[in-house]
Every structure is written in C-alpha cells, then in structure tokens.
Amino acid sequence: MKSHLLQLFNEYSDGLRTLVFPRYCIICEDELNRNREHFCVQCEANLHYTYFEKYSDYTFADQVFWGRLKIEHVFALLYYEKATSTREILHHIKYNEGIDLANYMGKMMGERLIQSDRFSTIDVIVPIPVHSKKEFSRGYNQSQIIAEGLSETIDCHVVEALYRKSHDESQTRKSKDERFKNVKDKFALRPNALDDYQHVLIVDDVLTTGSTLEFASRAIYEGGFQGKVSLSTIAVAH
Ligand SMILES: [Zn+2]
Fold it and tell me: Where are the transmembrane segments (predicted)?
C-alpha cells in the first residue's frame, strides 16, 4: 500500500515537473512525453544506427586498426557523417545536458552491443581519460559517463585503468613529428589495474582516425596487459 502511494506520488511529481519544466527532444525539439528521455519515439527510432551487433564478420570500423595494432573487435552505435542527429547528440554530450545524455547513450550502446557474440567475453570497461583541464571546465569526463551507462546494461565494472601522462601544452608551436610523439605519449596503464581481467573494452565518444583509441590500446599492451582489447564508441565516421 505504502509503495503504491509512493508510486502515485512519484508519478504525480514527475508530471508536475514536466508541467513546470517541459523537456524537448534534442533532435526535432518537440516537447517530450513524460515517459521519454532526450528523444521522442520517432527521433530515437530514426537515429543512424550502424547495426554492427548484427554483423558476425568484421566491419569497416575494425579495418581502421588493421596494420596498426591488434584489436579484437570494434563497436559503434551510430554513424557520424551521414547524420546531423549524431552530431547533435555528441554536441549535447559535450556542452548541454551532458551527463544524463552520455549515460543514456551508454545504456543504448550496451543494449545493442550485448546482442553480439563478438563482445560476449568482455569483463571490464575502461574509459578514455580526459585532459584534467578539460574535465575541470566541463565538470565530468564524458567517456567515463558513457562507460557507466554501458556498464549498467552489460554488467561489467568500469575501471579507470588509464591516465594521461603529459600535458600537451603549446602543441601548435611543435612540428608534426613532435606533435605525433606528444600524442603517442599521452596514456599509461596504472600498475595492476587490469590484473583480474581478460577482455578489455575501451570506451570513447567518437571514432574518426582512431588515433586516440590506438594510443589508449597501446598503453594497455605496453603496461603488460596480456588479454584482448576491444573498442566501443557512440559514433563512427564512415
Ligand atoms: Zn524528436
């Protein structure tokens, strides 16, 4: 009885909140029903999904890393260039209702990724660390929040196994080679952080050239990790 009353109260206050603070779909900007978060039904259905979870073979996202280093599998939820909706989402994650949306996208990523056998042995999620200054100005690490949303659906721990080694200040004054070296040295693996795990999933918001994810993976191998490394992002550029 008590819980029924509580539920009624929650529904009532939820309705009241929506009445006072209406929320809008971030794609079409129509007002949202109170049971919706971030997207209306149509816009969520019409996002440009990759459907990578339906592939049993490699995709072009896997091929990004061929000849560079050993990556087990690569997942991405959405296509990037084809869809302004994807850009809108990434922009919101960075600048607007970031935390809630990043978490929501992480969950959405998990619901699809879990349908693929290729990711069934993953036992830990590692977010890309952000530059401490950027994180400070935004108030959160978006990859970390995406990872936490994902962990709720695939039931794996998030471990902040990577950290940034050096600040890349005054990059613009450096030559291309120096910049490359600088980027290459960005990440390192915390000692023993992944000792109990066999298959790591590194998470970031977007996969374009793959260099950030490559350096993160390299840091994990160079830190002595003997298991498999896979990658997952909200969006992939095609
Ligand atoms: Zn909409």
Answer: none
User: Is beta strand 124-127 parallel, antiparallel or unpaired with respect to 199-207?
Assistant: parallel
Evaluate the CA torsion angle 100, 101, 103, 107 in order and state its sign.
Answer: positive
How many angstroms is it from 27 CA to the middle of ligand 1? 5
Q: Sort residue 196 into left (φ over 0), alpha (ψ -120 to 50) or beta.
A: alpha
Distance (angstroms) between ligand 1 centre and the Cα of 31 equals 8
Angstrom distance (rounded) from CA 15 to CA 153: 27
Could you please report the per-residue DSSP string of 168-211?
Answer: -TTGGGS-HHHHHHHHHTSEEEPTTTTTT-SEEEEEEEEESS-H
Distance 85 CA to ligand 1 centre (A): 10
Q: What tokens appear for 167 in the block?
A: 């600040």
Give me ligand 1 centre to Cα 91, in Å: 16
183 vs 158: CA distance, rounded Å: 24
pLDDT digits 0-9 by tens, 96-105: 668 999 999 9
CATH fold, domain 47-236, is Rossmann fold (3.40.50)
Map out the domains of the chain as residue ranges. 47-236
User: 28 C-alpha to center of ligand 1: Å?
Assistant: 4
pLDDT digits (tens, 9 = 90+) for 131-150: 666 666 667 889 999 999 99
